[in-house]
Design goal:
Number of domains: 1
Strand order of the largest sheet: 2-1-6
Radius of gyration: 21 Å
Largest sheet: 3 strands, mixed
CATH topology: HU Protein, Chain A
Number of helices: 3
Oligomer: single chain
Distance between the termini: 18 Å
Order of helices and strands: EEHHEEEHE
CATH superfamily: IHF-like DNA-binding proteins
Strand content: 25-35%
Length: about 150
């Protein structure tokens, strides 16, 4: 079940107007140990072996991205780097110093996309409560409606 709540935010189409929007309420993240144990229950590989493979996979993804490569993980999706930077007057002026931020982007596969269509089997929602007005404190949560850990 996916929890959500209503959050009051500025309407992006009319900056002086506020509207209420649905926002995901994140619960406890699934950690590496729990993921490894869950996978081990469905196959013949031990949780320790799975953790070792997942840790090695993370290291190899970082290595590949640092080499300027994207990483495709079949039906899971892919990882790639993006940059943002300062605009320059001409192409010759664009240097490494023009780069301001480096990000890792995850792009879901078509299979992952299909699994999260609103009408997909197994998708359900539960409203848990509404956020306070902007600028007021929200007991036990953040004003943005996002979890403290950002998901992972």
């Amino acid at each position: 079940m996916i929890n959500y709540k209503a959050i009051k935010r500025q309407n992006p189409q009319n900056k002086g107007e506020y509207k209420w929007y649905p926002s995901i309420v994140l619960t406890n993240p699934m950690l590496l140990d729990e993921l490894a144990e869950a996978i081990a229950l469905n196959c013949t590989v031990t949780a320790h072996d799975i953790k070792a493979v997942l840790s090695a996979m993370q290291e190899q993804i970082i290595f590949a991205l640092r080499q300027g490569r994207s990483v495709r993980l079949g039906d899971l999706g892919s990882f790639r780097l993006t940059i943002s930077g300062k605009g320059e007057a001409d192409a010759a002026s664009v240097t490494e110093k023009s780069i301001q931020m480096l990000r890792v982007r995850y792009c879901k596969s078509t299979g992952m996309e299909a699994a999260f269509q609103l009408k997909s089997k197994g998708i359900g929602f539960h409203k848990v409560g509404d956020a306070a007005e902007p600028g007021t404190s929200v007991p036990g949560g953040s004003e943005s409606g996002e979890g403290e850990d950002g998901g992972l």
